[in-house]
Amino acid sequence: MMQNHLTVDLGSRSYPIDFGQKLISTLGQRLRSLALRGQTVVITNETIAPLFLAQVETSLRDAGYPILPILLPDGEIYKNNNTLQQIYDRLLEHRMERSTILIALGGGVIGDMTGYAAATFLRGVDFVQIPTTLLAQVDSSVGGKTGINHPLGKNLIGAFYQPRLVVCDLDSLATLPRREFVAGMAEVVKYGLIHDRDFFYYIRDHLEAINRLTPEPLLTVLHTCCAIKGRIVSADERESGQRALLNFGHTFGHAIETLTGYDQYLHGEAVGMGIVMAADLSRRLGWLGQEEWLDITQIIRRVGLPDKIPPLSIDAVLEAFSRDKKVHGGRPRFVLLQGIGRAVVTADVPESLLIEVIRDHASG
Ligand code: NAD
Ligand code: GLY
Fold first, then answer.
1. Banded pLDDT at 1 (limits 50, 70, 90)
2. Are 216 and 272 found together in one domain?
3. Is the pTM of the predicted complex or chain greater than 0.70?
4. What is the number of domains present in the chain?
5. Beta strand pairing call for 3-8 and 343-346
């Protein structure tokens, strides 16, 4: 069995991330080894429960944990206040106490909601992440951003609240629909682009094996992404500085998601398009060489992300930028590349260049 782990260093709130195969079946022992005691509540959805819930329950039961499963409907549209209320209702009906451990079994939707329920139920109970999508394994399960959507926007209600443990079981990716896996690869490519040039070229050189879910390169991918994210989160948990680099490709990506009504593209697909646009902006500023630019567009295509950006109105994109969370003093800020592996945040972008990029990529 292949195994590996690393620690997200946050002082007394530090926590391990375990990577490997067949890890779900060791969950109960792992909780014991971390001295987590209490009633466990496994929060998952109707799609994931038939795949993994029995394994999780067996492992917890064998280690002596009482278990309450909570099954939610599947979908981003349920990441809202009503579903959160259902979680609180079940916890209260079953008289859950402060020692309760909430376990998120699923993708980013389940992880974000469970984390927020854990942050708020009885003013905070322990929680554990078992991410089952690539996006959740390399991004959303690590770093403690939790929350729900509001009718006026995504992820507007939430809290920073760190898990006690993250368990990334490679085997869970075997059942993930291909389109979801490819969307997660946009975030994987992002880590190489913002922080680690060698990793970017490692992905390029091992792409076929990664796509076939070959354990060794996949483990390298998960470990490297989480190590980069863990280091950034340790240095800037609440995003007052370098954590913003994790949003590379997201300013353009969010604009595409907003303007296409959130139902045409998966988040990672929009981020893939955003990466291409942000890289092109970096190139036009003279910060990124032509060869590196070609390497980026080629990897986005080879990963299988959409290489055509939908037609968008320039004014609508500029308007969406002005509503982006990263706006500072009225000016949108962009994460851009000064070469592969080196990202910076800047508001110093001439509008004429922005317009050129939007026009050339999203003109239909
Ligand atoms: P998701 O949670 O909706 O999962 C995608 C789909 O795959 C769902 O239908 C799910 O039921 C299914 N699924 C999950 N695991 C499966 C498996 N192993 N086999 C088969 N089907 C499986 O989507 P996601 O991409 O994981 O997460 C997106 C969410 O994450 C968004 O709400 C986004 O806001 C959030 N997010 C949060 C952070 C953060 O830092 N907290 C970062 C990025 C994204
Ligand atoms: N997904 C971006 C962050 O966690 O900061």
1. very low
2. yes
3. yes
4. 2
5. unpaired
Query: What pLDDT, in 10s, does the model give residues 80-130?
Result: 999 999 999 999 999 999 999 999 999 999 999 999 999 999 999 999 999
Report which of 179, 187, 176, 107 is spatially closest to residue 141, judged by C-alpha positions.
107
| Active site annotation includes 254 | yes
Least Cα distance to 345 among 223, 232, 227, 221 occurs for 232
Can you give the residue range of the structural domain that contains 231?
A: 188-360
Supply the CATH number for residue 275's domain: 1.20.1090.10
Could you tell me if 141 and 265 lie in one domain?
A: no
Helix, strand, or coil here: 139?
helix
Strand segments (E) across the chain: 3-8, 15-20, 40-45, 67-72, 101-106, 126-131, 145-150, 153-160, 165-169, 334-337, 343-346
The last residue of a domain, from among 135, 154, 175: 175
CA 59 to ligand 1 center in whole angstroms: 23
Per the annotation, the verdict on 155 as an active-site residue is no
Task: Show contacts of 90-94: CB within 8 Å, 24+ apart.
Answer: 90/41, 91/41, 91/117, 91/121, 94/68
Q: Could you tell me if 50 and 72 lie in one domain?
A: yes
Are residues 247 and 229 in contact, defined by beta-carbon separation less than 8 angstroms? Answer: no
Residue 100 forms part of a structural domain: yes
- Number of the ligand closest to the Cα of 135: 1
250 is catalytic: yes
Q: Are residues 112 and 204 in the same domain?
A: no
Residue 364 pLDDT class (50, 70, 90 cuts):
low
**Ligand 1: centre distance to CA 72 (Å):** 13
- Tell me how far apart the alpha carbons of residues 334 and 321 are, in angstroms, rounded to a whole number: 9
- Domain end (from 175, 204, 236): 175
C-beta of residue 219 within 8 angstroms of C-beta of residue 230: no
